[in-house]
Amino acid sequence: MWGVYISIFIALWLIQLLMTMIQVKHYRQTIRDMSKRGSGYLGVGVQKRKFGLGTVLIIVTNLEGIIIDCRIMSGVTVFSRFRNCKRFTNCDIFHILDQDIKYQAPLEMAIEKIKQQMNKSVSIL
Questions:
Q1: Torsion of CA 64, 44, 36, 21, to 10 degrees
Q2: Which pLDDT score is estimated for 122?
Q3: How far is the CA of 120 from the CAs of 38, 41, 125, in angstroms?
Q4: How much is the pTM?
């Protein structure tokens, strides 16, 4: 009897491992697609929770800090996929945080990464 339970547990664990690998492949492909812009900056923000929805937000800005593309993945399972987020498109990253936003934490993290890239490119010049 225990052999059946152990076999079922191992099978479920292997299925979860496979689905996680598929989700990581989707994440990498989305990052690759969004980073193919000629110029601008890419920022990724993550909000992890022990229980509840986790969120990954990817934004791409032009050189002036205007968001030109935004994708979001939110969910609790490995079936979650990125979807376009038109809400932040054409917003200025320097003024968007003044508003009350649903995805505040991942947006702040992504914008902070973009600002670091902007400062790095300015200091190199």
A1: -170
A2: 63
A3: 18, 11, 9
A4: 0.81
Query: Residue 65: which region, alpha, beta or left (left: phi > 0; alpha: psi -120 to 50)?
Result: left
pLDDT of the residue at 124 = 55
Domains for the chain: give ranges and CATH numbers: 2-124 (3.90.1010)
Which residue in 63, 103, 109 sits closest to 87, CA to CA?
103
**Residues of the chain with confidence (pLDDT) below 70:** 99-100, 121-125
Tokens encoding 22 = 């598929």
Rg (CA), the chain: 18
Beta strands in the chain (DSSP E): 41-47, 54-61, 67-75, 83-84
Count of CB atoms situated within 10 Å of the CB of 62: 14
User: How far from each other are the two terminal CA atoms of the chain, in whole angstroms?
Assistant: 69
Q: What is the pLDDT of residue 52?
A: 75
